[in-house]
Specification:
The chain has 176 residues and is an alpha/beta fold. Helix content is 43%, strand content 19%. It has 5 helices and 8 strands. The longest helix has 29 residues, at 124-152. It starts with a strand and ends in a 9-residue tail after the last helix.
């Protein structure tokens, strides 16, 4: 027996009538899904029964991590290339994920780039790259997902940020 909650997550009633949350049937696209929090989010969604598409600019890494996730969970996660700083490419990633998963319910913006060193020694193009990936891509991804979700009448956007963005860290001025 399954009961639906407002977010389409399902509660499975087991032998002891203790409800257990699952995300079976939930379709999730994750940027930055090959490392860090993005990869951990993919693992968690797969463990809860969701269908997952992960994206990264490094296609070799996407293939390797997708294969690893599928071995761990016996699932059929989808790996797709995405350059989150290119709006057209980002839109294509979401469209392909939607087509491959049979729809989209959740978009997780987890792609990020770490600082490369001292703020005073950082080149403008390095700062720009961090801002493009860590901020502008989140805005782009949220807008693209939001337009899809408004049109279909449901959906969730999850934007991942770092705690050091609040607390600050030495050598990570632009990142923070």
């Amino acid at each position: 027996i399954y009961r639906h909650s407002y977010c389409r997550a399902k509660t499975k009633v087991g032998e002891n009538d203790m409800p257990r949350k699952t995300l079976v049937g939930t379709r999730v696209a994750i940027t930055g899904g090959t490392y860090g929090i993005g990869k951990e989010a993919a693992l968690a969604f797969l463990a809860a029964g969701a269908d997952v598409a992960i994206g990264d600019a490094d296609t070799g890494k996407v293939r390797a991590i997708t294969a690893q996730l599928n071995r761990i969970h016996g699932a059929d996660a989808v790996g797709l290339p995405v350059e989150v700083t290119d709006g057209v490419c980002f839109a294509e990633f979401l469209a392909t994920a939607e087509r491959r998963l049979g729809g989209l319910d959740v978009v997780v913006n987890a792609a990020d780039i770490k600082p490369t060193g001292s703020f005073l020694a950082e080149f403008d193009h390095e700062s720009d790259r961090q801002i493009d990936i860590n901020l502008r891509a989140v805005i782009t991804g949220s807008r693209l997902a939001g337009m899809r979700f408004v049109q279909q009448g449901h959906g969730h956007i999850v934007n991942i940020g770092s705690a050091i963005g609040v607390t600050a860290a030495l050598g990570a001025a632009v990142y923070c």
